[in-house]
Every structure is written in C-alpha cells, then in structure tokens.
Write a structure and sequence with these properties.
globular, Phosphorylase Kinase, domain 1, binds uridine-5'-diphosphate, seven-stranded antiparallel beta sheet
C-alpha cells in the first residue's frame, strides 16, 4: 500500500492531501480547535472524527437534493474524498437569529429574532482577521463575478432552508453558520459548488428547549463540554448508535411435578 502521500496544505482544523485520481483531494479532519484567528488553541480528542461524520451526513443529504458540492465519499474515521475546487476567498455567513459578531456590531441582544435571514460576506484572509466585505468589494477585486455571487446567495439560502429543517427536527435551532464555495472546472465548464465542511465548528446550534449551546461557542467562551455537545448533535442525527443494555435474564422457575 502506498503510505507516502503528498500533503497539499495544512489549515487550522484540516490537512489536505493529493487524492488517488487527478482532480480529487483527501481531507483529513484534525482534533485541533482554534478561535479568534488562532489566538486561542486546543486539541480536543475525537473532535475531528465527529466533524467528519456530521459533515459527511450533511453533504450527502445536500448531494441527494441536487445541491452541487465537492463531497464524494467518506474514506475512514477522519478522512473524506472530495473534488478539487478553486476556493473562492469568501466566508459566507447566513444568520437566522442575532448572535456573535452581529450582536456586537449592531447592539442586538443575542437570541433576538432577525426580521429575515441575512447573508454576510467576509474576505478569507488570516492576516487581516477575515474582514467583512460587500458585493462591491467582491466584484471590484474580482474575488467573484456578479453571476457567481448570485449563485452563491441562492445556494446559501437553500442550504439554510435544508439545515434549519434538519436541525429543527432534532430539537436544535440553527442560529447561524458559515460556508465556503469553490469553482469546479469540468470539461470547459466552470460551476460553483459548496466546499469545505458543515459541522458544529462553523454553526451556532442551540437546544430549543434548554437554549444550551451545542457548538464551538463552548470553546470560544470557555464553557467546557465541547465534546459532549458535539456528541449530542451526532447522537440526535443518528450517527451514534445507542446500544440498549439487554435486560439481564432472570432465573426462571421451572415447574417440576
Ligand atoms: N464562523 C466560522 N469561522 C469563522 C468565523 C465565523 O465558522 O472564521 C461561523 C461561526 O461559527 C458562526 C457564524 O460563522 O456560526 C457567524 O460567526 P460570527 O460572525 O458571529 O463570528 P464570531 O462571533 O464567531 O467571531
């Protein structure tokens, strides 16, 4: 077996390797957690395994719904095979409820309903701390064309509808999330596809009954219990099979005449 693989890139939470076929990439999910532009770091045992599974489930369902994504298949506990795309340097955030940076920027109480879902764009640049940008900046600096922005916004709304329903069904409110898109080049054609991952690392997920946070805010805000929260999301999504303890068979009375 070929064990030497070519590493293409190592990010904060993932490593990318060359895939087995041209145009494919292997994504390896690490256990590293970072926040505030990597100023805060920790290793959380098992986080990569859970994110790999949760992201697989979401991307598989989106593929089934006809949403173009880079996802091909999960390979093992920590790795998945994806199509190679040219990442558009934007973080696309969709918000349903005020929280995080939006609450701070506009002085909105965390948890207050928004008049409608809001899409925001951030320029992916660690040195600059991912500044928020408008469509004007995106087209002026040629990060994406007006048609591509249009496609991205339509896809972001469809993803939000799907995810909101998926999480509502398991008692979780989808407060907001971040997604990334890429250009897939296929026989003289270019199209926008959903890339990166969707996991509790890049979503805000609140338990509907208790308002408990089941996402990376537990790490950002030093609340503890991150793994338990991610496990709870995985369990409700049906990814962790609960083995019921079989009732211990009691000795039965045997009648002897
Ligand atoms: N987010 C992310 N990566 C980032 C910034 C934000 O995945 O680099 C996600 C975050 O988990 C949340 C949503 O995008 O679900 C909105 O984040 P926000 O702008 O409120 O920033 P934060 O408060 O996390 O700094």
């Amino acid at each position: 077996m070929n064990t030497k693989r070519t590493r293409i890139y190592e990010g904060k939470a993932k490593i990318l390797y060359e895939g087995p076929e041209p145009g494919t990439i292997i994504v390896h999910y690490k256990d590293d957690a970072t926040a505030f532009n990597a100023q805060k770091k920790a290793v959380i045992d098992g986080k990569g395994v859970l994110n790999n599974r949760i992201s697989e489930l979401i991307f598989t369902r989106l593929n089934e719904l006809g949403m173009p994504t880079h996802f091909l298949k999960r390979l093992n506990m920590r790795e998945q095979l994806v199509r190679e795309v040219e990442i558009i340097p934007l973080e696309v955030v969709v918000r349903n409820v005020a929280a995080g940076s939006l609450s701070k920027r506009l002085g909105l109480e965390e948890g207050s309903a928004l008049p409608r879902s809001i899409i925001e764009f951030y320029y992916k640049n660690d040195q600059l701390g991912d500044p928020m940008v408008s469509e004007e900046h995106i087209t002026a600096f040629n990060w994406a064309s007006p048609q591509e922005i249009d496609d991205i916004m339509h896809m972001a709304i469809r993803i939000n509808d799907f995810l909101s329903g998926l999480f509502l069904g398991i008692g979780i409110k989808l407060v907001d999330f971040k997604v990334e898109f890429g250009r897939l080049y296929e026989n003289d054609m270019v199209r926008i596809v959903l890339a990166d991952e969707i996991s509790p690392d890049c979503c805000r997920l609140w338990d509907i009954k208790t308002q408990d946070k089941l996402d990376k805010d537990r790490f950002r805000r030093d609340m503890g219990g991150l793994m338990e929260a991610y496990q709870e999301v995985a369990r409700r999504l049906g990814l962790i099979i609960e083995v019921e303890q079989p009732e211990r068979s009691r000795p039965k009375l045997v009648k002897t005449d």
